Amino acid sequence: MKKKKKTVLVVLGGISKERDISLQSGKACVKAIKRLGYAVRTFDPAKKLLNQINRSKVDVIFNALHGKGGEDGNAQSYFEYLKIPYTHSGVTSSMNAMDKVVSKDLFKKNKILSPKYFVLNSKNIKTSNIKKCIKKFKLSYPIVVKPSDEGSSIGVKICSNFKILRQSVNSLKRKYINLIFEKYIGGQEIQVAVMNRKAIGAIELRPKRGFYDYKAKYYKSAKTTHIMPADLSKKDYKKVLKISEKVHKVLKCRGVTRSDFKFFNKKFYLLELNTQPGMTDLSLVPEIAKYRGISFNQLVKKMILDASINR
């Protein structure tokens, strides 16, 4: 009797602002999963609710969602409820990594260096409050203001003076509840991939744009330079890999993660950890893996084999 192929359900798209990237990631993974010999189906939460996944027809869920709803513990809670093994991090670690206020607090408690910051709720965002907090937390310009729960640099504004900061805040506070005000860190843009608790490499990015924003990340036309391995001394390269493994462990992550750093004045500042890194042809985790001799197919296979529940 012929052995039945395992069926992998790729969950992609969704309703977040990162929908387009999720569709690209998902499509690339579907191709790889087919090449690996699995039966593959797709599911888009923008078209059907996650609780409509037919558990009897699925062996593994490959989570290719990005942003709100897919990266913040929401989708993961459905997968746990359905008791279908799934890829990437679990409910709590996804929630904590996506909420920059919670994750920054955890970084601080675990002595992981991150830029100085303060948080204001949209209701408390008055000119006097902002000025008071800038003074209290000893922030100097440029100051970064960003939503506390978005990914892919969506809503990130770098402000060189108070006038620009106030304009940025006025546009963001209409859409978001909590805003983070953070000291801008210059220096090298370094990102590290961790797979199954082990750092596999660090890449450096040199954007042609003002900073490594949404377009620099996802559009070839932005012509961001990728340097693999990152241009660091051996000692610093090892150091940033070690910090990334620590962050992955602190947030109790599973599967693949990517940690984003700035290296300035011989110090690594952790900006954030991503529990659902992109899997497009411009994405960094596949590029880092390739340098390590891990093909895209092998990367996807490792992620599928790591899938489980109770993550």
Task: List key phrases describing it.
311 residues, alpha+beta, D-amino Acid Aminotransferase, Chain A, domain 1, Dna Ligase, domain 1, 3 domains, four-stranded antiparallel sheet, 10 helices
Order of helices and strands: EHEEHHHEHEEHEEEHEHEEHH
Radius of gyration, taken over Cα atoms and rounded to an integer in Å: 20 Å
Kindly report the spatial arrangement of strands forming the biggest sheet.
10-9-8-11-12
Sheet with the most strands, sense and barrel status: 5 strands, antiparallel
Shape: globular
Total domain units? 3
Q: DSSP helix count?
A: 10
Overall pLDDT, averaged? Answer: 91
Determine the strand fraction and express it as a percent band: 15-25%
Overall strand count: 12
Low-confidence segments, given as residue ranges, are none
CATH second-level architecture of the largest domain: 2-Layer Sandwich
| Intertermini distance | 34 Å
Q: CATH H-level name of the largest domain... which superfamily? A: ATP-grasp fold, B domain
Highest-level CATH class of the largest domain? Alpha Beta
State the share of residues found in helices, binned by percent. Answer: 25-40%
Structural class: alpha+beta
What name does the CATH topology of the largest domain carry? D-amino Acid Aminotransferase, Chain A, domain 1
Can you describe what's shown?
34% of the residues lie in helices and 23% in strands. The longest helix has 17 residues, at 19-35. With 311 residues, it is α+β, with helices and mostly antiparallel strands. Strands 10-9-8-11-12 form a 5-stranded antiparallel β-sheet. A 4-stranded antiparallel β-sheet has the order 4-7-5-6, with helices on one face. Strands 2-1-3 form a 3-stranded parallel β-sheet, with helices on one face. The mean pLDDT is 91.
